Amino acid sequence: MRVTKLLTAVMFLGLTATSPLALSQSATDNEILLEQVGDTLNLTILQQGYGNKISGDSTQGSDMTITGSSLNIDIDLIGNSNNFYGNMTTSNSTLDWTITGDSNVWDILMGDMGSADSADILVGITGDSNTMDFDLGSVTSAERLDMDFTLLGDSNVFDVDIEVDDATWNFDITGDNNNFLTSQTDGAYQYMKVVLDGSGGDFDLIQSSGTCPTGVSSCYGYIDINIDSENATVNITQSD
Amino acid sequence: MRQLILLSLISLLHCELSAADTIGGVLEQAGTPGDITRQTGEQLIASVDTGVVSMDTVKTENGRLKIQFVDDTQVAMTEHTVIEINEYVYDPNPSKSKMALNFAQGTARFATGKLGLVPKENIAIQTPTANIGIRGTDFTTTVDELGRSLVILLPDEDCTDRVKLEQGCAPSGSITVTNDGGTVILEEAYQAVMVSTFETSPTQPVVLTDLNINLIDNMFIVSKPTQVVEAEEEQQEARSGADYLAFNDLDIDFLEENFLPDDNLEFSELDIDTLGVNFLVDLLDFLDVEDDPLAADALAVRTGPDKITGTLNPGFDPATNYNTIIDGSGIIWFLRTIDGQGTISVKIPIGSNAKIQTESELTPSTICVNDCSGINIFIRQTQGG
User: Fold this and answer.
1) Interchain CB distance below 8 Å, A230 and B375
2) Residue in chain B lying closest to A227 (CA)
3) Peptide bond preceding A20: is omega within 30 degrees of 0, i.e. cis?
4) Do the beta carbons of residue B47 and residue B2 sit within 8 Å?
5) What are phi and psi of B150, to 5 degrees?
6) Residue range A153-173: average pLDDT?
7) Residue B96's CATH number
8) Looking at B171, B186, B218, which one is the last position of a domain?
9) Distance CA B147, CA B273 (A)
10) Would B232 be classed as within a structural domain?
């Protein structure tokens, strides 16, 4: 029988710890500390406020860890100066992350310690001066990614590294003076679709193919960029 | 009335032949009858009520004809036109019905059946240089002896009277024109595109502002209006008179007054025989000249105020490996595909200022759009990381 865990955490002040889902409260800002192992988790977090954090064991200063397959994780951060640190190993999972606010820091590692195949990731960020560092598939398998990213705001700094096969990576950026670095490497049939709308900004797009599937001699990628800007700088590097 | 006769013929043929055989027939015919060549080599005279079947090749010489298919789709052909019916499947289940026509030569007007018995996505129209995807209902194609194709999207059927003509007409849907050089979407009434070869991109769509449905209809008149017939008879009588020189109106085009609008024609009236079969071919030649990148004035017409240097515009430039497409939706599209390296597609709005610098094992290039400032794009497309 399929067992579905449902956790809905509406976070205003703090939560207590449970196992295997560990939640505890920091002495300072509001924190959600997650260490989750198991499949078919449905997790919804709405965190509102200033200076909040989602991470792992606070005593060790670790990141949030989530391990399992067929997960549905919906995280909604509303407010300024919030932090979201995590290490996720999830296959066949749907991740829906929304950040609304300024000066937030988001650092996520996915597919570092185990497979993260068939991820469907939807990210929406509205705000200014946010910082995001997202790495996917740097060590282990992370095939068939479908990632859609929408940013509405100015002066954000993002670094998104995707190292997977068969990735569809769409991002849509509206705002001025954003700094965006993304690489799509070590995979076959890479596809990157970019929509940029705003003044200024510096965008670096890197795409390089890795090993082709057996019997296929050429599996080069495709970068599709649509720019409406007065003075953006865009660097595109594509190699097979 | 003729439609009823044709439908009766089709019904009769359905009784005599297998259901898959007769797919339509000649609805109207004027001038010297054309011919219909069966796949078996059998040749028939294309007179009214002659049936057509899949794999037929229909050809006109010094005459015109209109074919109607069982789903009510009509194809009107002017002189010296060849159409091959590559496939026609009519099934009570519309999703299984399909049609494939090859407009091999000449000028033809295609109007999908109002009954919608063949889904538009199952209709494939080919010319020697392009594939036409049907999302509209009414368009013309002209294919000249070089295989160049001119496609014009026509307005909807309500756009007939003078007031509507002046107010502007809604298109009869939209159509796509695709070849190895890219895809162009026509979605305005009288929007036209020309394709020179299958490898070069279609031209930027242009709206033939002084074209109207009467003008188009004139070209495809098979059953001429009574007044036209009368005018021709009068002219014939005059010509048959003893004293040709005594008749002063020999050179009058009686139709011109009735069908031409009073406003100025962008395409010189003096060069166009409005009833002549060569009218669309003339337009095709006109657009082909416009496509010449060396014709600076023509370029201005094609791309508005935008000035693009460093690569061929529009079309594929083997020196830069960029295919430049002005896609009709206000976008300048630079497409670069290098086998073994990948594809980079850059789209910027018409009117932007941009510089695109490209480094690769092949020839480096710098493309400027307008004043070469504004957006700075650096592309490094290489083999091996």
Assistant:
1) yes
2) B348
3) yes
4) no
5) -115, 125
6) 87
7) 2.60.120.1440
8) B218
9) 22
10) no
Of the two residues B3 and B131, the one the predictor is more confident about is B131
Give how many domains chain B has, as a whole number: 2
Per DSSP bridges, beta strands A83-91 and A146-152 are unpaired
| Disruptive mutation site among A176, A225, A233 for chain B (greatest number of B CBs within 10 Å) | A225
The answer to whether the complex's ipTM is over 0.90 is no
CB contact under 8 A, B349 and A228: yes
**In this predicted model, what pLDDT tens digit does every residue of B350-369 receive, in sequence order?**
888 899 999 877 678 999 99
Rounded CA separation B158/B165 (Å): 10
B212 lies in the same domain as B319: no
Q: Residue B262: inside a domain, yes or no? A: no
Of A209, A232, A236, the CB nearest to B344: A236
pTM: 0.51
Find the range with the poorest average confidence among A45-54, A122-131, A150-159: A45-54
Per the structure, the complete domain to which residue B87 belongs is given by: 2-218
Mean pLDDT score of chain A, rounded to an integer? 80
Asked if A229 reaches chain B (Cβ–Cβ under 8 Å), the answer is yes
Assigned domain for B286 exists: no
- Digit-coded pLDDT (tens) for A175-223: 999 999 998 887 677 788 999 999 999 999 988 876 666 666 666 688 8
Taking an 8 Å cut-off on Cβ atoms, the answer to whether A239 and B380 are in contact is yes
B172 domain residue, yes or no: yes
- Residue B313's pLDDT band, with cuts at 50, 70 and 90, is confident
Least confident of B32-41, B140-149, B289-298: B289-298
- Boundary of a domain, candidates B218, B234, B267: B218
Residue of chain A whose Cα is closest to the Cα of B349: A228
Q: Do B309 and B209 reside in the same domain of the chain? A: no
Q: Name residues whose C-beta falls within 8 Å of residue A124's C-beta, 6 or more positions apart in sequence.
A: A97, A98, A99, A149, A150
Residues B197, B336 within the same domain: no
Does A229 contact B374 at a Cβ distance shorter than 8 Å? Answer: yes
Closest CA to B100 of B121, B115, B81, B117: B121
Measure B178 CA to nearest chain A CA, in Å.
19
